[in-house]
């Protein structure tokens, strides 16, 4: 299994490189690819089909918070002190199953291994969890747990989303070390009740560092899938495609502000309630 360790980059480049890596992984040229990375500043990523109007875009602009649309689905995330990952693979890879639920579960096992090795009593959901009454309109990715996602003491610690093609899939996810609840309140125009079911890892163990978490995730993938996880940077073709996607797609307002499958109707946002 290939490991791409990118460090912190811009929101637009992060999404562009994830898509570029998935393109080449699905072609079979690079094999299954795990990428671990961060963000050069607090940034918001929207799900592929999510309405940008669910955010306080004026606040994001004034605060210098970039907003980008992911190639995968799910809900919005305010990225900050966290480890972000992407995993790309072609079809037919042993241990990853043949569909979205099987691949979610397989990757969940690797992350469970990582969290448990850090001394966290992590639990994985084996089926979709029914959301609270407000969750259907909650824009936050961490507002509810879905199949194969992981919690500690009933609080969600990782948010993931996946997109599949006939020749393979891309899964992206966020593992916060600390949550900027004040920042989320401003970005998502929601009160504190929206964040009670999520947590950063340092809330359970303040000694967990980004370096320790990265090492645990790499070890978890290697041991669960019984493979060597080998560090390899993007090649010239992957980098060229990433820069092209960054310039022509992910940095463009036309992509960021317009969901590919917009929900009908609109909702008025309120500081006191849900968007």
Provide a short characterization of the protein structure.
The protein is of the alpha/beta class and 275 residues long. It has helices spanning 11-27, 57-63, 100-117, 181-188, 210-224, 236-250, 253-257, and strands spanning 2-9, 33-39, 43-46, 67-69, 77-79, 82-90, 122-124, 150-152, 155-156, 159-165, 168-176, 230-231.
Notes on the protein architecture:
With 275 residues, the chain is α/β, with parallel strands linked by helices. The protein has a single domain (2-257), classed as BirA Bifunctional Protein, domain 2 (2-Layer Sandwich), CATH 3.30.930.10. Helices cover 31% and strands 22% of the residues. It is built from seven helices and twelve strands. It has helices spanning 11-27, 57-63, 100-117, 181-188, 210-224, 236-250, 253-257; strands spanning 2-9, 33-39, 43-46, 67-69, 77-79, 82-90, 122-124, 150-152, 155-156, 159-165, 168-176, 230-231. The protein has a six-stranded mixed sheet with strand order 10-11-6-2-1-12, with helices on both faces. It has a three-stranded mixed sheet with strand order 4-3-5, with helices on both faces. A three-stranded antiparallel sheet has the order 7-8-9, with helices on one face. Helix 1 (11-27) links the parallel strand 1 and strand 2 (33-39). Helix 1 (11-27) crosses helix 6 and helix 3 packs across helix 5. The longest helix is centred in the middle third of the chain and has 18 residues, at 100-117. The radius of gyration is 18 Å and the shape is globular. The chain starts with a strand and ends in an 18-residue tail after the last helix. Mean pLDDT is 87; it is low at 128-136 and 262-275.
């Amino acid at each position: 299994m290939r490991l791409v360790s990118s460090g912190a980059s811009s929101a637009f480049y992060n999404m562009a490189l994830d898509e570029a890596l998935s393109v080449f992984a699905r072609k079979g040229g690079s094999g299954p690819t795990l990428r671990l990375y961060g963000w050069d500043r607090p940034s918001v990523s929207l799900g592929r089909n999510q309405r940008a109007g669910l955010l306080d875009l004026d606040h994001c602009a004034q605060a210098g918070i970039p907003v980008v649309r992911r190639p995968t689905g799910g809900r919005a995330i305010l990225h900050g002190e966290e480890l972000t990952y992407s995993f790309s693979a072609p079809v037919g890879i042993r241990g990853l199953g043949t569909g979205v639920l099987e691949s979610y579960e397989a990757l969940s096992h690797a992350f469970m291994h990582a969290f448990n090795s850090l001394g966290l009593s992590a639990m994985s959901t084996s089926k979709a969890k029914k959301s609270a009454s407000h969750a259907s309109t909650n824009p936050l990715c961490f507002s509810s747990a879905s199949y194969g996602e992981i919690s500690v003491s009933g609080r969600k610690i990782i948010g993931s989303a996946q997109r599949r093609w006939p020749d393979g899939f891309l899964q992206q996810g966020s593992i916060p070390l600390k949550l900027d609840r004040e920042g989320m309140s401003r970005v998502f125009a929601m009160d504190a009740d929206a964040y009670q079911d999520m947590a950063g890892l340092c809330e359970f163990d303040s000694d967990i560092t980004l370096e320790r978490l990265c090492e645990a995730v790499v070890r978890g993938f290697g041991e669960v899938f019984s493979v060597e996880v080998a560090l390899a940077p993007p090649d010239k073709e992957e980098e060229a495609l990433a820069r092209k996607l960054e310039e022509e797609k992910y940095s463009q307002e036309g992509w960021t502000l317009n969901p590919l499958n917009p929900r009908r109707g609109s909702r008025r946002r309120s500081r006191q309630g849900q968007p």
